[in-house]
Design a protein that fits this description.
One of its GO terms (biological process) is L-methionine salvage from methylthioadenosine. This protein is α/β, with parallel strands linked by helices and 358 residues long. The chain has 11 helices and 14 strands. The strands form 3 sheets. Strands 6-5-4-7-10-13-14 form a 7-stranded mixed beta sheet, sandwiched between helices. The protein has a 4-stranded mixed beta sheet with strand order 11-8-9-12, covered by helices on one side. It binds 5-S-methyl-1-O-phosphono-5-thio-D-ribulose.
């Protein structure tokens, strides 16, 4: 299966829609198995998001948009009350699947707004419009990622070493990724970047997903354990860090995969620029600072017996936040599809978010 994006990415798409079903690449099984979940009910979509079958902020939003459509498509006949009640209930259920990525709420809000704009029309028409809206969210995400890639590329140079954390690649989006988009574009231009992928404890998105998709693309990627980032920086092998984000607060604080903050501090200590690739759908002007971003805590078993092998004593206390906050002062620039934002972020983010979408 290939993405129809104008660029033939080497890995299968994270989210697809075929024959009235939502297809989600089950990322829990990568890199060894390529298996798609075929979903027809919103509860299945919610579960797939919660259990990380689909993950990465933009991909979560896209999946939820289709999930909302699946929720209302079987409301029978012209029962308006049932339709709107089902829409709101499904929206609430999907909206609580994961707390940190704001793209989830962004996509659901956009879907509900679309439905509201057609209030009074035949329900069949509204349902059809919702499916088209979910398709548009997916299509636009690929375009947004490509633009982020172009802006990000202007900050890199041929021959550089680039370190990334977690997976903000094609598997986390409709195509290209956010943080990984410039790496794909660099490859198209014949540049030789050397990428270091943090393995990203505890569920190894860096090892299982980033290393997988970059390797499939023929990009020079070296996998390192999270605790090796300082060493490769000290050796002078890294000239830029680029990561994705689940939510950027109005002051420029950034939520991303746990461990990102540590990487940012290390980058500062070594004089290396730390870039955050953020589609505007990840920027939340209603959340004033990083302290206001809800951080998901995940089950202890991810740490004590990841992938089925017990590596800690039974019953040990575990702290397992899925994300951390990197304070704005550590961020060299935020790269959006509308351009590169430099500090002071409060002003820059406001300007970019007020820009009418092109
Ligand atoms: O828990 P995950 O795998 O959903 O976390 C993903 C990340 O932290 C990504 O960096 C972020 O969502 C950006 S994806 C373009």
């Amino acid at each position: 299966m290939r993405m129809k994006t104008g660029m033939d990415l080497p890995h299968p798409p994270a989210v697809d829609w075929k024959e009235d079903r939502l297809l989600l690449l089950d990322q829990r099984r990568l890199p060894t198995e390529t298996v798609y979940l075929e979903l027809t009910r919103p509860e299945e979509v919610r579960e797939a998001i919660r259990e990380l079958a689909v993950r990465g902020a933009p991909a979560i939003g896209i999946a939820a948009a289709y999930g909302l459509y699946l929720g209302v498509r079987d409301v029978p006949g012209e029962d308006e009350e049932d339709f709107w009640e089902t829409l709101n209930r499904t929206c609430d259920r999907l909206g609580t699947s994961r707390p940190t990525a704001v793209n989830l709420h962004w996509a659901l809000r956009r879907m509900v707004r679309r439905a509201e704009s057609l209030r009074g029309k035949p329900l069949s028409e509204i349902k059809e419009a919702l499916l088209r809206e979910a398709e548009a969210i997916r299509r636009e995400d690929a375009e947004v990622c490509r633009r982020i890639g172009e802006h990000a590329l202007s900050l890199l140079q041929d021959g550089m070493g680039v370190l990334t954390h977690c997976n903000a690649g094609g598997l986390a989006t409709a195509a290209y990724g956010t943080a990984l988009a410039p790496l794909y574009l660099a490859k198209e231009r014949g540049w030789r970047l050397k990428v270091f992928a943090d393995e990203t404890r505890p569920v190894l998105q860096g090892a299982r997903l980033t290393a997988y998709e970059l390797k499939q693309a023929g990009i020079d990627v070296t996998l390192i354990c999270d605790n090796m980032a300082a060493d490769v920086m000290r050796r002078g092998w890294v000239q830029a860090v680029i990561v994705g984000t689940d939510r950027v607060a109005a002051n420029g604080d950034v939520a991303n995969k746990i461990g990102t903050y540590g990487v940012a501090v290390l980058a500062r200590a070594h004089g290396i620029p730390f870039y955050v690739a953020a589609p505007t759908s990840s920027i939340d002007m209603e959340t004033p600072t990083g302290a206001d971003i809800p951080i998901e805590e995940r089950p202890a078993e991810e740490v004590t017996q990841g992938f089925g092998k017990r590596t800690a004593p039974e019953g040990v206390a575990v702290y397992n936040p899925a994300f951390d906050i990197t304070p704005a002062e550590y961020v060299t620039a935020i790269i959006t599809e509308r351009g590169v934002i430099r500090p002071p972020y409060a002003e820059g983010l406001r300007r970019v978010m007020e820009e009418p979408p092109k």
